[in-house]
Amino acid sequence: MFSKRKMPFSLLGAYTLLYLAILYIPVLFLPMFSFNDSIYTAFPLQGFTLQWYQEMANNSAMLKALQNSIKLGVVVAIISTILGTMAAKAFTSYRIGYATPLKGFIAVPLVIPLIILGISLLVVFSRMGVPLSLFTIGVSHIVICVPFSMLVMISRLEGFDNGLEEAAQDLGESPWMTFWLVTFPLALPGIVASLLLCFTISFDEFLLSFFLSGDQQTLPVYIWTQLRFPAKLPNVLALGSCILLASVVVVVLAEWVRRIGVAPAENGADKT
Amino acid sequence: MSDDRFISVQNISKHFGAVRAVDDVCFDIRRNEFFSLLGPSGCGKTTLMRMIAGFEEATSGDVHIDGQPMGHTPPHERPVNMVFQNYAIFPHLTVQQNIAFGLRKEKLAKKELNRRVEEALEMIKLPGYGPRAAHQLSGGQRQRIALARALIKKPKVLLLDEPLGALDKKLREQMQLELRALQKSIGITFIFVTHDQEEAMTMSDRIAVMSEGKALEVGPPAQLYERPTSHFVADFLGSMNFFDGRVLKAEPGMALVETRELGHVRVLSDNAGVVPGRDVIVAIRPENIAVSTQKPKGDINSVKGRVDTAAFLGDRSNIYVMVNDGRDTVLTVMQNLGGAASRIGAQSDDIWLSWNDKAGILLPATAR
Fold first, then answer.
1. Searching chain B, which residue's CA lies closest to the CA of residue A161?
2. Lower Cβ count inside 10 Å, N or C end of chain A?
3. Does A161 touch chain B (CB under 8 A)?
C-alpha cells in the first residue's frame, strides 16, 4: 500500500485557487458594493451605507417584479413537478412501448435554444390571440422545467422496489392510498429537489420571460430594463444580495432534506 | 364448501404474448394445508402465485378461495396476504409501523393496536423490536417481520414467494422448521413457492411440481419421491438413474423389462397400459441400489460392475459404477456406516449391484 502523497504547492493548486477566485469573487462583489456609499460600482469603496436597501424596500416596481417572479416560480415548480413525477412514474413502473424515444421527446426542450423556443411560442400565442402575461411566461417555463423534473424523479424512482407498492396493496390499501402511504413518502426527497430546481430555473430565466411578458415583468426582465440607468444599479445590487442569501439558505435546506431522505432508501435497496 | 377444495385453481392460464407462463393449471388446496409450488425458475410458479394474490390477471380460468370466485378482485380486496421474495419492508417506517400497516383500515384504539403488534413480535421471536428503523434489521429479521406483517391481517391464505432464498443455509433450515411449526399452530393455509426441492419436501403437506407452465404432479412429498409418474418429476426430486427399455413380459402388478445397461429387470407395474413391446423408462433411486462384493443370492435384480469414481461426502458416498463392460454408468449411494463408504474407492475388483423389484419405477418413454 502506498500512502497518499502530500501535495506540494503546485500548478494544480494554483489552478484551483484561480478557478475558485474567478467563480466566487465577482459574486462576493455584489454584497460588498451593495453597502458602498456611491452610485458607481467602482473602487475605491466610499463608505458604509444601508441607503440602497432602504430604497429597494420602497421601490414598488421592483418589489412587484419580485412578487411576480416568486408567484410564477412557485406555480411553475408545482405544476412541472406533478407532470414530471407522473412521467417518471410511468417510465419506471410500467413497460411502455417506445419508452426511449418518448423520454427523448419530453427532454427536447433541454436542447432547443431558448431563443428559438421563445420566438416560436411568441408566434403561437399571438396567432392564437392569447395576450402576453404571466400566464404565457408560466406555460413556457413549464415546458422547460418538466424535463428537469422528470429526470430528477426518474433517478429517484429507479431502483425503487415495485414490491413495496404491491405489498401495500396486498395489505389492503387501494392503489390511491398506496401512492400516499408508500410511493409519495419515498419519493419525497426527489419531489423537494424537483420543486427547488424548477423554482430556480423559472426564477432566473430571462429569454423566455423577455419574449413572452406583457406588462407584468419578472425580476430578471425588470433588472435588465434597470441596467440602462446607472443610478438604479445599487438597488439591483441590494436585491441581488438578498437573493444570494436566500439561495444559500435554500440550497443548505435542500441538501439537508436530501440527506434525511437518502439514508433509509439506500438500505431499502440492499436486497439480495 | 368442503375443506378439500378450500382453494380451487380452475384451468388457469397466463399468456405473455406467445409465451404460456401458466398453461391450463388445475388443482385444489385443502384448508390448513401447507402447499408448495415447486419447480425450476421460469416454470410459472411465481406467476401462478401472483394470480392467486391478484397481481396478475389470468388469461383464462379462475381461482376460488373458500368458495368465492376471485375473478377480477383487486389484490387489496382478496382474503390473502403475501410474504414477498425481497420482503418489501417499507424503508420509511419503523418495525412497529410496518407490522401495523395492514391494520390501518381497522381503526383500532392505540392500545389494542400496540397489543396486536407486540403479540405479532412475540410470535416471530423479536419482542421489543417495534421502535427499530427498517434499515437496522438483518435479512432474517426482515423475513420474520414480513411474515408478522402479513399474518397480523389474519388472512385465509398466506402466500410465500421464495421467502428463504436470501438467507444462509443454517438460518434457512431453522426457518423451515419454524415456519412449519407456525403454520401448524395458527392453522392458516400456506402456499409456498420454491425452487428448492429439499425445502418443499421438508415443509409441505403436498407439493405441486411445475414445469413449463404446467402442474405435472400434485401429491404428498413421499408419493412424489417414491412413485413419480413423469420423467420430469422423477428427475427433479432427488437423484435418479434412468434406463431406456422395452417391455418383454407383462403380468398383473409386474413387468419384465429389457434394458441395455442392466439386462433384464423386474419392475412393479400398476399400469394397465404396459404391454409387451412397448418402450418404457425404468427409473431407480441410487439409495435403493445395494453394493456387494459377492453375487447376491436369491431372486433379486442384480448386475455386475466396476467402481468408476466414488465421491466421498462424509455421511455417505456417491459411487459411480460402470456396467455393461464399461459402456454405461450407474449411480448408487452408500451410507458411511463404520467407514464402509470411505473405503469403497480403493477397490478395483468387480462388484455387484442389486435391488429388489419394488425399487424400479416404470415411466412412459414419451414423457422424456
1. B88
2. N
3. yes
Q: Report if residue A56 sits inside a domain.
A: no
Report which DSSP code applies to A181.
Answer: I
B86 in contact with chain A, both atoms CB, cutoff 8 A: yes
Quote the minimal CA–CA distance from B48 to chain A in Å: 16
* Total Cβ atoms within 10 A of residue A4: 5
Record the cell numbers describing residue A200, joined without a space.
Answer: 430556480
Residues B28 and B167 in one domain: yes
- In this prediction the pTM is 0.78
Same domain flag for B187 and B63: yes
Tell me the three cell numbers of residue A150.
Answer: 422528470
Cβ pair A272:B53 closer than 8 A: no
Is residue A49 in some structural domain? no
Same domain? For B247 and B317 the reply is yes
Q: Report long-range pairs for B39-45 (Cβ below 8 Å, ≥24 apart).
A: B39/B195, B39/B209, B39/B210, B39/B211, B39/B236, B40/B195, B40/B211, B40/B236, B41/B195, B43/B210, B43/B211, B43/B212, B43/B213, B44/B14, B44/B210, B44/B212, B44/B213, B44/B214, B45/B193, B45/B195, B45/B210
Distance in angstroms (rounded) separating the CA atoms of residues A34 and A51: 9
Cross-chain residue pair A185–B92, CB shorter than 8 Å: yes
B276: containing domain: 239-367
Interchain CB distance below 8 Å, B91 and A185:
no
Instruction: For B136, name the nearest residue in chain A, comparing CA atoms only.
Output: A267
Tell me if chain A has a CB within 8 Å of the CB of B85.
Answer: yes
Q: What is the pLDDT tens value at each position of chain B, 368 positions in all?
A: 568 889 999 999 999 988 899 999 999 999 999 999 999 998 999 999 999 999 999 999 999 999 899 988 999 999 999 999 888 999 889 999 999 998 988 888 888 888 989 988 988 888 888 888 888 888 888 989 999 999 998 899 999 999 888 788 888 888 899 899 989 988 899 999 999 999 999 999 999 999 999 999 999 999 999 999 899 999 999 899 999 988 888 888 888 898 888 888 888 887 667 778 888 899 999 999 988 888 888 778 888 888 888 888 888 888 888 888 778 888 988 887 777 776 776 566 788 888 888 888 888 886 44
Determine, yes or no, domain membership for A40: no
> Are residues B164 and B302 located together in one domain of the fold?
no
A225 within some domain: yes
- Are B141 and B17 in a shared domain? yes
Q: Which residue of B has its CA nearest to A185?
A: B92
Residue of B nearest to A169 (CA): B76
Range of the domain at A181: 63-261
**How far is the alpha carbon of A190 from chain B, nearest alpha carbon, in Å?**
14
Compute the nearest-CA separation of A89 from chain B (Å): 18
A243 has a chain B CB within 8 A of its CB: no
Q: Are A20 and A30 in contact (CB under 8 A)?
A: no
